[in-house]
């Protein structure tokens, strides 16, 4: 008999904010996830290198996890000296947790760009995909994504409990329009980030003077 599924949320988390956390909280509650693991990337494969160090980003993720019941930190991707390919992590987790369904949490923008991911056709061999909506999204899927949904999408939560992998579930979450890029710009301008990220993370950023503008010459 399978155990309750867990959620996996990877990201640069530079910094971690409510746009990451709120959809994960809603997925935890809607799907009955036993836990949500936050996995900060070391070398993100789909974007520029982070502004903050791995140690700083890990510290912020740990502070955010401590604020949310059922959230934990998984450091495995920070231990790698190569890009943080999702498929590698999902293979490891499926081997470590043979009786636990794994739900990989992602945004709609990531789903639409899935064909550009490394070995993306294999993701559902090792996990379910749980997709959160983003502001302004339209269900106009590229051909390969539409084909994937036609074969694997489910609206039955029990499918994610009764099978270890192979389904796509699109959440009916509250879309939040916030990106780390926009948040970094707000912080660099000296604006108050209150309610956009956990208070302990905001305090950490303030104490360590992260995301400050470069001194003028």
From TrEMBL:
Pathway: Cofactor biosynthesis; NAD(+) biosynthesis; deamido-NAD(+) from nicotinate D-ribonucleotide: step 1/1
CDD domains: NMNAT (cd02165)
A Pfam short name: CTP_transf_like
GO terms assigned for molecular function: ATP binding; nicotinate-nucleotide adenylyltransferase activity
Uppermost EC category: transferase
GO annotation terms (biological process): NAD+ biosynthetic process
Keyword Nucleotidyltransferase annotated: yes
Residue runs in coiled coils: none
Catalytic activity, EC: 2.7.7.18
UniProt keyword list: ATP-binding, NAD, Nucleotide-binding, Nucleotidyltransferase, Pyridine nucleotide biosynthesis, Transferase
HAMAP family: NaMN_adenylyltr (MF_00244)
Cross-referenced PANTHER family: NICOTINATE-NUCLEOTIDE ADENYLYLTRANSFERASE-RELATED, PHOSPHOPANTETHEINE ADENYLYLTRANSFERASE
Role noted for this protein: Catalyzes the reversible adenylation of nicotinate mononucleotide (NaMN) to nicotinic acid adenine dinucleotide (NaAD).
Family under the similarity heading: Belongs to the NadD family.
The protein, known as: Probable nicotinate-nucleotide adenylyltransferase
Lineage of source species: Bacteria, Pseudomonadati, Pseudomonadota, Gammaproteobacteria, Aeromonadales
Gene: nadD
């Amino acid at each position: 008999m399978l155990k309750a599924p867990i959620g996996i949320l990877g990201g640069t988390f530079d910094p971690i904010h409510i746009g990451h956390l709120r959809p994960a909280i809603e997925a935890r509650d809607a799907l009955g996830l036993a836990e949500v693991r936050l996995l900060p990337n070391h070398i993100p494969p789909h974007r520029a290198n982070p502004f903050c160090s791995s140690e700083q980003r890990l510290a912020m993720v740990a502070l955010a996890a401590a604020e949310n019941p059922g959230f934990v930190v998984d450091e495995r991707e920070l231990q790698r000296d190569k890009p943080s390919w999702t498929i590698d992590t999902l293979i490891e987790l499926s081997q470590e947790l043979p009786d636990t369904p794994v739900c990989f949490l992602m945004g709609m923008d990531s789903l639409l760009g899935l064909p550009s991911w490394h070995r993306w056709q294999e993701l559902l061999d090792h996990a379910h995909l749980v997709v959160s909506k983003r502001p302004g999204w339209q269900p106009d899927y590229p051909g390969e994504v539409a084909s994937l949904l036609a074969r694997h999408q489910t609206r039955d939560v029990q499918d994610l409990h009764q099978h270890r992998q192979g389904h796509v579930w699109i959440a009916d979450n509250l879309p939040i329009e916030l990106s780390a890029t926009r948040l970094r710009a707000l912080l660099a301008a000296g604006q108050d980030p209150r309610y956009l990220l956990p208070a302990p993370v905001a305090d950490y950023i303030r104490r360590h003077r992260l995301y400050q503008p470069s001194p003028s010459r």
